[in-house]
Amino acid sequence: MVQFTNKTAVVTGGSSGIGLAVARRLAAEGAHVFITGRRKEELDAAVDAIGSATPAPGDIADPADLDRLYDAVHARGKGLDTLFANAGTAGFATLEETTAEHFDRIFGVNVRGTLFTVQKALPLLNEGASVILNCSVRADDGVETFGTYSATKAALRSYTRTWANELKGRGIRVNAVSPGTIDTPAIAALVGAEKAEDVKADFAAGVPIGRMGTTDEVAAAVVFLASEQSSFVVGANLYVDGGENQF
């Protein structure tokens, strides 16, 4: 099915992991996708893998980078039909260990960055556009040492409801997707390559269906929320978690 022909999409954090999987699916179904990322080599490789894509190097925590992104979208002249606000960062720290720098870094990207990613897109969003925020099951489960990250995802869940209400008059649907434990390169980046496989095995043991999820499984859910197939879904939070947060 080619359901996004002549549509324009933006995927932040689109150079790897969930963002890359979503960008590939949207492009495969006809969209022209703008992807952001902080590392140029990874971004260029992702563009090659996606096909119909435009790179927008930058950091969503920097308003000037967001302005450059949306200037490029505006120059295409077709507005914006899908925005997947996916870019984020993470880090471990207990309550005792949390520093101002740790808090500011994670909230600065995940909450402040996502807020302005969506706000600056408003003039470009076409009627009937879809905005999807990448939340997380971590907003609900209280995993130790992940408190600041989890709090950012809870904030995004709250924003999803508010923005859905504020934008419904323009026919713009805002929803969230909450991945569970997904096998992405971010795991090795967080714990180190030498520990990654052991950590993944521990993660998989905690998922009811006995394995980690894939980025393609999350991408399928995002594409559903971006499409007309979800036309009566507004302000929702779709869990893609193998039952992790359901029992």
Short description:
Helices cover 47% and strands 17% of the residues. It is α/β, with parallel strands linked by helices.
What count of helical segments does DSSP give? 9
CATH superfamily: NAD(P)-binding Rossmann-like Domain
Percent in strands: 15-25%
Shape, per Cα inertia axes: globular
Q: Specify the CATH architecture.
A: 3-Layer(aba) Sandwich
CATH fold assignment:
Rossmann fold
Number of strands: 7
Written overview of the protein:
It is a single chain. This protein is an alpha/beta fold and 247 residues long. It has a single domain (8-240), classed as Rossmann fold, CATH 3.40.50.720. The protein has nine helices and seven strands, in the order βαβαβαβαβααβαααβ. The protein has helices at 17-28, 40-50, 63-76, 100-121, 138-141, 147-167, 186-191, 193-205, 215-226, and strands spanning 8-11, 32-37, 53-57, 80-85, 125-134, 173-179, 237-240. Strand 1 (8-11), helix 1 (17-28) and strand 2 (32-37) form a beta-alpha-beta unit. Helix 1 (17-28) packs across helix 9, helix 3 runs parallel beside helix 4 and helix 4 (100-121) packs parallel to helix 6. The two termini are 34 Å apart.
